[in-house]
Each structure stands twice: as structure tokens, then as C-alpha cells.
Amino acid sequence: MLEIKSLTKRFGDKTAVDAATFTVTEPQMIGIIGRSGAGKSTLLRMLNRLNDASDGQMLYEGTEVTRLTGTARRAWQARCAMIFQQFNLVPRMDVVSNVLHGTLNRRSTFATMFNLYPQGDIHKAIEILDRLGIAEQASKRAEDLSGGQQQRVAIARALMQDPAIILADEPIASLDPMNAQIVMDALRRIHEEDGRMVIANLHTLDTARRYCDRVIGMRDGRIVFDGTPAQLTTGVARDIYGAGADFSEAATSTAIETLGKQGDLAPA
Ligand SMILES: Nc1ncnc2c1ncn2[C@@H]1O[C@H](COP(=O)(O)OP(=O)(O)OP(=O)(O)O)[C@@H](O)[C@H]1O
Question: What keywords does the record list, in alphabetical order (predicted)?
């Protein structure tokens, strides 16, 4: 169980996240939506302990994550792996080595210096790449892959840590609609098949509706909606985005929906 209690982040006199409070009792796939600057990335970065909270608490299975330091903090960062909009791979390194980087925090400095990976880890990395449909890219340099393939490598690197939670910060914002769908499908499958919690910042409403069990809406640092996609009416969405009567859901939509409607790809 993940409990977030009044989690707050201030940068100077700017409150980026203002007393965020929510509980996740079972592994769900959660989408966080809101306009640019609403505090979505800051919230995710606090969950992963990349940013320290200014106030509030976060507990996972009863442990106060907000207080962890040193090795315990790094162990937490492995339990909740993070993926980013820009993939954050090492561009000139081959795909499988990028994936094996996901094991860095449990390897000795010596092994890291000489790029020594246990055979078991190499097999595991290939298996994960295979599961994500990109095993044949294993020996290529990361920079030679498409954006969608690179994001799947980043997901594979996250899975190497066997995380309980995957945090995804705008995972499809740089992708074309087809690759966006492939990446979201992969995250959904990982959630369903492995029972991992997925919390994703999404810049489009339709993606959150389509893939998530639960949607959290943020506005000006505060959580202003927490419910199911069905409860996310156009009126609620208008409030979250702080839009006027002329608000159109299409304005927050990527072409994923359009693609689905055209019947080019089966809906997830
Ligand atoms: N390191 C920082 N220093 C100062 N202010 C920051 C910092 N990081 C974020 N902020 C501010 O905090 C607020 C929330 O930013 P955040 O990036 O969390 O929003 P967001 O909802 O993820 O937006 P976007 O979708 O554009 O990334 C913004 O006003 C931003 O300018």
C-alpha cells in the first residue's frame, strides 16, 4: 500500500505541489493529468525521491519513504523505477548494455568499471527485450533506434530492477501516435501481467481514459480530481485544465484516439 499524505514541494516561494494526498491500496494503473506547470513531474520526482519533499509523508508498505537515506533511499529508487519523456539512455551504448544499466545499483564498483555483467543478468535482459518485442535490436546502438523502440529499452531497463512501481513522466510525449500506442500497451501489459503499479503523467486526457484504472487531476499544485475514467466528465476535465466553456477534449488529445477510430490498430 502506498500512502501519500500532504506531500508538498516548494521551490522558493513557489509551491509546486501543495499537500497532495492519496492512497493506493492495490497495484493500479494511475494516470496523472493537468496542464503544464500543474506539478505532475514534481509529484513523481518526490515519489521516486529524486526531489525531497518540503513537507508531508509518503509511506510504502508501512515504511516512511520520505525519511530514507543512503542505501535505503537507493533501494527505494530501484523499487520504483522511473522512465522519462526523453528516454535517458546512453545513446552510443548498445541496447542490451543500456538495459543492464538497470542493475548498476546492485553491482560492485569493480564490476561496473569493467562492464562485467553476470550471465544470468544478460539472459534476463534479452528475455525482457523479447517480451517488449525488441530483442532483435539488442546489439544496436540505442541512438539508432526509433523513439518508440528507445522508450521500450528504457522500460526494459526499469524492469531489470524488478520494480514494484513504475513511474513514467510523460512517457509518450515525444512519440508519434503509433509508437505512443505501442508504449502505452506495453505499460498496461506490464501492469496487468506482473501486477506492478504504474503511475504515469500523461499530457492527454484520452490516453488517461483509455489506459488507466484511476485518474488523478492536478491544478496549480493541488489534486483536484481523483476517480475513475468514467467519473472524469467533460465538466471535471474543464476544471482540471482551468479552461472555459469553449474547452474541447480534443485539444488535449493525441492522435492515438484518432488512430483507434480509423481502425488502423485495435483498441487496447
Ligand atoms: N527545480 C525547480 N525550481 C523552481 N521551480 C520549479 C522547479 N521544478 C518545477 N518548478 C515549478 O514548479 C511548478 C510545477 O512544475 P512541474 O514540472 O512539476 O509541472 P508539470 O505539471 O509536470 O508541467 P509539465 O507538464 O510542463 O512538465 C512549475 O511552476 C515549475 O515552474
Answer: ATP-binding, Nucleotide-binding
Q: Which of 24-38, 41-55, 162-176, 249-263 has the lowest mean pLDDT?
A: 249-263
Residue to mutate (ligand 1; options 8, 14, 50; most atoms within 8 A of CB): 14
pTM, two decimal places = 0.89
**Which domain covers residue 27, as residue numbers?**
2-262
Taking the CA of residue 44 as reference, the ligand 1 atom at the shortest distance is 18
Q: Any idea of the CA torsion for 239, 244, 250, 254, to the nearest 10 degrees? A: -60
Residue 267 forms part of a structural domain: no
Atom of ligand 1 at shortest range from CA of 41: 22
Give tens-digit pLDDT for 24-76: 999 999 999 999 999 999 999 999 999 999 999 999 999 999 999 999 999 99
95 alpha carbon to ligand 1 midpoint, in Å?
Answer: 31
Please give the grid coordinates belonging to residue 30.
494511475
Tell which atom from ligand 1 comes closest to the C-alpha of 169. Answer: 22
Task: Calculate ∠ Cα 12-17-21, nearest 5°.
Answer: 145
Specify whether the backbone of 4 is left (phi greater than 0), alpha (psi in -120 to 50) or beta: beta
Q: How many domains does the chain have?
A: 1
ipTM over 0.90: yes
Give me the CATH number covering residue 107: 3.40.50.300
Exposure b/e, 89-116, CB count within 10 A at least 16 = b: beeeebbbbbbbbbbeeebeeeeeeeee
